[in-house]
Amino acid sequence: MASLTRVAKERRPQPDDDRRSEFETRVLHALEELMADGTPYTELAVQRIATASHMARSTFYRYFPDKSRLLIRMADLVTADLFAAAEHWWRADHAEARQTVVVAMTQMIAGFRRHSALLNALTEVSAYDRDVGRYWSGRVRRFRTVVCERLAAEQRSGNIDDGFDVTGTAIVLTSMVERTISVACSGQSLVDDRVLAESLGRAIWLVVYGED
């Protein structure tokens, strides 16, 4: 007869949220340092990333099965604040929107610039990696949905014209912001970040409300 007092076999402990967060932060810092000298993400071997993160290769693979999953998770971390700033503006009261949209653009530009190497890698890899491409298009699509919802609400309230195409305009706005910031942070901008934020903010305002 089996003993009722038998101690249950211990299960292998799983990494808790705090431990995972600390690990992911270390990997992010290591990855960005490795790319700081211009080394492309695609040329970084997993072993090199793991070593720079002070982790065994086997431990590294417990969290990231492959480099696609690694890039997706790192992108999630660094774009959270970028999208949060923009989504907050689209959901907030627009009484002071002329000023607050510039603030939102300033935050997005600053966030992208801090992580430009990683985000440029995301743009590059998403063009040919199915998983990364699906992730990024899905993330942009969720943001576009927020824009569509606000534009539709403004239309119902009579703040924008009935003939305003909500979906088409949302595509134009999200693509404009994403591409403009991406180009600026790749070293091709002819203006400083303050001017860029003001220009983007004004363009968004004019497209939506049509008044200067």
Automatic annotation (TrEMBL):
The keyword Acetylation does not apply. InterPro entries: EthR_C, Homeodomain-like_sf, HTH-type_TetR-like_transc_reg, HTH_TetR, Tet_transcr_reg_TetR-rel_C_sf. Pfam families: EthR_C (PF21313), TetR_N (PF00440). Residues 21-82 form the HTH tetR-type domain. Residues 1-21 are annotated as: Disordered. Residues 45-64 bind DNA. Residues 7-21 have a biased composition (Basic and acidic residues). The keyword Amino-acid biosynthesis does not apply. One of its GO terms (molecular function) is DNA-binding transcription factor activity. It comes from the Bacteria. Keywords: DNA-binding, Transcription, Transcription regulation. PANTHER family: HTH-TYPE TRANSCRIPTIONAL REGULATOR BETI, HTH-TYPE TRANSCRIPTIONAL REGULATOR RUTR. This is HTH-type transcriptional regulator EthR. It comes from Nocardia aurantia.
